[in-house]
Amino acid sequence: MCIFNRGQxxxxxxxxxxxxxxxxxxxxxxxxxxxxxxxxxxxxVLACPxxxxxxxxTRYSDPKRFAFRMWTQPERVWLALGxxxxxxxxxxxxxxxxxRRTIGELIHVFxxxxxxxxxxxxxxxxxxxxxxxxxxxxxxxxxVAGGHSP
Length: 150
Ligand SMILES: [Zn+2]
Ligand SMILES: [Zn+2]
What we know:
By secondary structure, the protein is an alpha+beta fold. It has helices at 6-17, 73-82, 123-128, 134-144, and strands at residues 22-23, 30-31, 34-37, 42-47, 54-58, 89-90, 97-103, 107-111, 118-122. The protein has two domains: 6-63, no CATH class; 68-144, no CATH class. Strands 6-7-8-9 form a four-stranded antiparallel beta sheet. Strands 3-4-5 form a three-stranded antiparallel beta sheet, with no helix packed on it. The protein has a two-stranded antiparallel ribbon with strand order 1-2.
């Protein structure tokens, strides 16, 4: 069985997580990726329909795993502000699209499946970031940014 080398794999995996199409670097065939959620992370299977070259990747064999780290507080705030309902937002650590889910209408959870970061905020804060009074806004943001309130 043929497998992709590390450089090829890195390009394909980046493309997958950035929601671009995944193409075989050997023959340019389009690959249909299969993502299987696991209890710890995921299993991503890529197989070229043309040449049959295959790859299986998890969070722990990701070519970029050594660069993975926790989101910083400013990044967490930025994610919440920059999130787009349609397109999501790009993870500042691994460049995957970060999804948001809502738990019981009260809490937004931002979760990056690729690098495993997670951040939860009350929906109130997320909505309040649009316009309302400046002072109120800042107080709420200070709460998100790690609790050093004025
Ligand atoms: Zn191929
Ligand atoms: Zn990430």
